[in-house]
Amino acid sequence: DVTEMEEKEAQAKQEEQIMKEQELSNLLHEKRYLKALGLAISLDRPHTVLMVVKAILKEPEGRRRLEENIVRLRKDQKEAVLAFLVTWNTNSRNCHEAQTVMETLLKHEAPDNLLQFSGIKSAVESLLPYT
């Protein structure tokens, strides 16, 4: 019977998730935005990533700090952010943050690199009507 083992695994995963949530909260409180962005992306939380972006933009020189953090993300993290900003861009409350992140990606990534992103074609097609 593997039921008990499966329950323990599920409980361990849930505890790990809670620990990551707490870590994310601590990172935001400490204003360690790069780690917070990375963790929110790894947790696949578009809304949390948006909240981190908004928190960065509220800081003095927030736009510059956002650029610094976005540029330092790995390629897979940038791809995830691109997918998230497609959704953010459809809502007028979040479109400015989406446009700011998109501008940063376009400014700091070579066109050839952008073409290598997974889902870039569908992202561009989704962004065009709202941009």
TrEMBL record:
Sorted UniProt keywords: Nucleus, Repeat, WD repeat
UniProt record, GO biological process: endonucleolytic cleavage in 5'-ETS of tricistronic rRNA transcript (SSU-rRNA, 5.8S rRNA, LSU-rRNA); endonucleolytic cleavage to generate mature 5'-end of SSU-rRNA from (SSU-rRNA, 5.8S rRNA, LSU-rRNA)
Keyword Phosphoprotein on entry: no
GO cellular component, one term: 90S preribosome
Descriptive protein name: TBL3 protein
InterPro entries in the record: Utp13_C
One Pfam family per UniProt: Utp13
Chain ranges of the U3 small nucleolar RNA-associated protein 13 C-terminal domain: 21-131
Record keyword Cell membrane present: no
An annotated Gene Ontology molecular function: U3 snoRNA binding
Lineage: superkingdom: Eukaryota
Principal cellular location given in the protein's record: nucleus
Subcellular locations according to the entry: Nucleus, Nucleolus
